[in-house]
Amino acid sequence: MAPPSKVTLTPICLLVYVWCFGVFMTLAWGSKARHFKWEVDYMYAAPDCLENVVMGINGQFPGPTIKARAGDTVVVHLTNKLHTEGVVIHWHGIRQLGTPWADGTASISQCAINPGETFVYRFKVDKAGTYFYHGHYGMQRSAGLYGLLIVDIEEGKKESFHYDGEFNLLLSDWWHKGAHEQEVDLSSNPMRWIGEPQSLLINGRGQYNCTLAAAHNSNGSSLPVCKFRGNEQCAPNILNVEPNKTYRLRVASTTALASLNLAIGNHKMVMMEADGNYLQPFSVNDFDIYSGSSRPPTNYNRRIFLLNTQNRINGYTKWAINNVSLNLPSTPYLGSIKHGLTSAFDQKSPPETFVNTYDITMPPSNPNATYGSGVYKLEFGKTIDVILQNANALNANVSEIHPWHLHGHDFWVLGYGEGKFSKKDEKKLNLQNPPLRNTAVIFPYGWTALRFVTDNPGVWAFHCHIEPHLHMGMGVVFASGVHLVGKIPDEALSCGLTGKLLRSNNHN
Questions:
Q1: Contact 129, 151 (CB under 8 A)
Q2: Per-residue DSSP letter, 271
Q3: Could you tell me if 468 and 143 are in contact, meaning their C-beta atoms sit under 8 angstroms apart?
Q4: How much is the average pLDDT of 57-67?
Q5: How confident is the model at residue 276, as a pLDDT?
Q6: Please, are residues 191 and 316 in contact by the beta-carbon 8 Å criterion?
Q7: Which residue among 44, 55, 95, 243 is least enclosed by CB atoms within 10 Å?
Q8: Is residue 256 a contact partner of residue 141, using CB atoms and an 8 Å limit?
Q9: Residues 117, 118, 124, 128: is their CA dihedral positive or negative?
């Protein structure tokens, strides 16, 4: 296997030690149920010094940080104050054991929350770690609908490592073009690519058209030096620190497109946790972030190959998996499968592999794909291998990085490599101590092998976490053990065919 040039820690939730600085805030823990009342609405803000419309929660951007302890129940009363669009919130990295309807994926786990409606998310946070939440409807993550979710260890327990203070860093990318306009661009014929973000934000703050580093750059800079009084919305956070102290740095990345690299000048960091799973500690100078270790299965029951390709459908540019571009139905899968509504989505299972002669180094010989809304129905309690295979895009000599995120489960990253996965790569897979994650990267013209156990009943999205790619169809849906799911709240099923069923039952 060809290793990447740097340590790669995928979207998202990273815990590091930093030998240098921090401030520790003592949190008074109350009852085991953490209640939050949120209102989602658009607001004006200047995250990068240029005022723009952002999506906020309770007038805050980024949204409020949720703090809880492992074993607590989080209860969020979410009211949609948007006037013309629905909304849902996905709790990234939370497995939603026993509460698949609270996963916050429109058309998969629930109906979108309509303007003026309130939906109650109630779920248990079962593992300590650094998580985040974000909108999962349209491209609302790009509009700024995100925030941190910090889960500390259980009451009465202590971490196995010592630190003197703690900081939280929420990383994101920011465009001056609104999310709605970006959606139109991506859905146009020809497609209008949204381009690189105008700014990068830390805790919702960044600088556009000036640089903090100019005064310290010996090579000079074409951008002016940023000058702040300190009270501007875009002024950087100042982290007050003391020398010779050890600080815990929690880092989460909600980027919709950008792959970021984080470093602290003249300091090393020790990686301790990723995606809610503890790691064998190791030291780094910097680490990459894109949009734990353990050993229990050595064999798989089923293997699915997923080929990532860029295609066209009726002239429109799309992303596809095994030549199928995901087109979500109007009725959430969870409700339609639970109630046996077979007309709600394609009943034909999507392809489980691609032709062996496919040349991943060349643009597709047949660029035409099809829309599909079928699901991979997985037997409950089985071990599933997924081989993600990257290929050439429509244009020659272009293959992109794709961070893939699985809802409802963690998976073991068994390995990765260059070229097309083959039998010889089988012997290279790590079955002894593979990292346990919920997001993994597939590199250009490469493959990544994952393994997970279908131990969480529900219907779960598995998709590229680059928001424009998901919007253009780059995802699949897994369903397992839906018959074991308890009663789904009516509010989650109030649309489509399940909504009609509920109204019919109430009428009768």
A1: yes
A2: E
A3: no
A4: 98
A5: 87
A6: yes
A7: 243
A8: yes
A9: positive
